[in-house]
Amino acid sequence: MKCKYQAILADLDGTVNRGRTLIPGADEAYKILSGMGIRWMFLSNNATSMASDLALKITNLGLPVQPEQVVTSASALIYVLSQGRRDARIMVVGEPRLIAGIVEAGITVVEEPSEVDIVVVARDSGFNFEKLRKAHIALQNGARLWATNMDVTFPVTGGLEPGAGAIVAAVAAVAGRPPDRVFGKPSADIAELALKRLDLPKSACLLVGDRMETDILFAKNAGIASALVLTGVTSRGDLQKYSFSPDYVLDSIADVVTLFN
Q: What confidence score (pLDDT) does residue 38 get?
């Protein structure tokens, strides 16, 4: 084996899939490398679904993924709340599935701004002025501002849609300050949770992703080797814009197999 890596930490949207379409060759790469004993974890800033939902989605696309193989910004958020802030009262600007996941973890979700300890902001297709108003009041009253991730756009079949970062920007603008904490890439929270589940050192893992400012910066911040794939947001021509670089540049995740030959 050419590479020393024992596990792949793969981004999902833009790397393994685009919406409900699998990136060509992703299933074959997964099969080949799994057969070689390489372990896979799938990392996503997506907080509109729970890890179990994404595992089922990817399985239905052709990759037999278990829920414990998926770590999202929502996973990291819920883990932190469960470990040290279980008594916190949370206002959520986000999709119903995220709210349900937080409630299922035993965390109190409230809507009255005067009762809020932490405002959690995520991608929210139902975002409106009333949600912004309530979040603003809660923050004025002293609540902390937490963001699931700062991705301004979100890859879907056929293009991009506004992401969590766009919603966070609106809330942060009225708050007059940036988020107090961000859980998605490039924050280290997802990496720490993934490595804990794998029980492997950073040196044994390879991060594969499509965004320089999230995936590759995340790998750099976490001290993990990285491979940029060109099936998502970042193009080869974009690389010169950054002061950091990936260890490998691949046309797609299908090519990651070549690193192990």
A: 96
Give the distance from CA 231 to its chain's centroid: 17
Catalytic annotation, pick one of 13, 27, 210, 215:
13
For the residues 241-253, what does the mean pLDDT come to?
96
Instruction: Assess whether 13 carries a catalytic annotation.
Output: yes
Write the DSSP assignment of 107-123 as a string of letters.
-EE---GGG-SEEEE--
Q: CA-to-CA distance for 10 and 44, rounded, in angstroms?
A: 8
Mean pLDDT of 63-77: 95
pTM for the model stands at 0.87
Beta-strand relationship, 39-44 and 70-72: parallel
Determine if the peptide bond prior to 186 is cis (ω within 30°): yes
Backbone angles phi, psi at 225, to 5 degrees: -65, 150
Instruction: Show the tokens assigned to 105.
Output: 């973890």
